[in-house]
Amino acid sequence: MGFWSALQSEAARGLTLALLLVAVVALSAAGTVAPDERRRLRLPTLLALMHFLLLVPAAFLRARESTYLIGVEVALLLFGVFAMVGFAGSLAFAVLLPRIGLRAPHILRDVVVASAALIGILVVASHRGFNLTSLIATSAVLTAVVGFSLQDTLGNIMGGLALQLDNSIRVGDWIDLDGVSGRVSEIRWRYTALETRDWETEIVPNTRLMKERVTVLGRRAGEARKWRRTIRFSSEYRFPPTQVIDAVDSSLQEIPIANVALVPRPHALLLDLGPSTCDYGLRYWLTDLAAMEPTDSEVRTRIHFALRRAGIPFSLPAQSLFVTTESDDRRAAERSLDFERRLAVLSRVDLFKSLERRDLERLTERLVDAPFARGETLTRQGAVGHWLYVVAAGTVSVRIRSDDLEREIARLNEGSFFGEMSLMTGAPRSATVVALTDVHCYRLDKPAFQEVLRDSPALAEEFARLLVERGAERERAREELTAEASRQRRQTDQRDLLQRIRGFFGLEP
Ligand code: CMP
Hints:
binds adenosine-3',5'-cyclic-monophosphate
């Protein structure tokens, strides 16, 4: 056979013609539909060129009926199949699938293309009469050896595939892996790349992501991405937690901060009662995880200014040692100061105005400190009463409950008192009293209260008058609550009946 006719018969083979066709289609489609794909087509184009160039030596060797022909044929086959599969993969994954709205992960595409190349070689080779059985038999041993030595690589590949397919980690997620956190920028065959906030790219082998615990930051099903941060700060014990929390909360909630979620709102919590400081945490939800440090800094600045405005200093990190010489004089001075303070409070109570100084002083001696935080319950309706309370600072709300409804009947401020009814009549508490602000009370136990009443019978009259007055108010409120409850019951009955009638006649609501 002459060289030219050998060249013609080589070129007219199915593989070469099919390769030519697929190459032309893929290159022109990529040029128009998927320009990004052109870079990926460089390798198949190179392989196709190699295939076409090898046709010349193949024809030459065939014309001479050389025994070297078989080697060139194998090379032709390999280049042809690889190029063909590369072009076909490009057509399928970059042109056709996106058209029907499917975007397959890169790694899946790579696996499909590699498997197709393998199958293609086996099919074409068997067509051309190469003995595949011996090839497969020897390759089984070879595969075992290669597989064993490539265990890690294969693990990475399978890991990468699994990550892509089960969507547990996606490109764009922020993850934390053993203290390193970053944004997933790509998931490849062998590794997953993380871009950290310090502009580093961590290359994490996929097997690590499969084996170790990975935290996906700020992800919660059905919610927009936001990550809770806690900024710690401390203040001295002499400032009540409610005051510190209010100051910080109002400053952070009033004016929004960039990258801080509006809902849930930022808020402060008392995290610990330390040996010398109250330790707080300001919690906020960060919406852009890349902006963690600047946002933390902005939040800390706000806390700093909020506390300064409220006159609350940060606690000193150093330990302070307060040395005071204890002496009888000092102790007496302290006691007398405290006593005067209590006496001043008691003398502001209207009801005690008629008491002699001597009685007032005796009463003052029996007072016990009772501070309460905002929201705490001081007495509960129906409970047994042990104390009479005098409000020294703050505001409390007196509430009664009837027919499952509750209502406030009075607010008491500094100089008022409550809890007298149970102590005087032995009846259970007639109302619930709740602190609306931080409240400082002094309380008096039953024996002390009875002693005062015994010594000042006029006071008992005053109390009795007050008892009637307060009782009448409660009665009025109770009647209103009963009326309100029966009105609500009527409304519910009416709604139920209407629903039943609608159901019976099949009417639309
Ligand atoms: P006591 O019943 O021991 O406990 C609840 C207290 O709430 C009660 O004593 C009163 O001191 C107070 N209280 C009850 N009713 C009124 C009212 N109408 N106005 C103000 N205080 C009240």
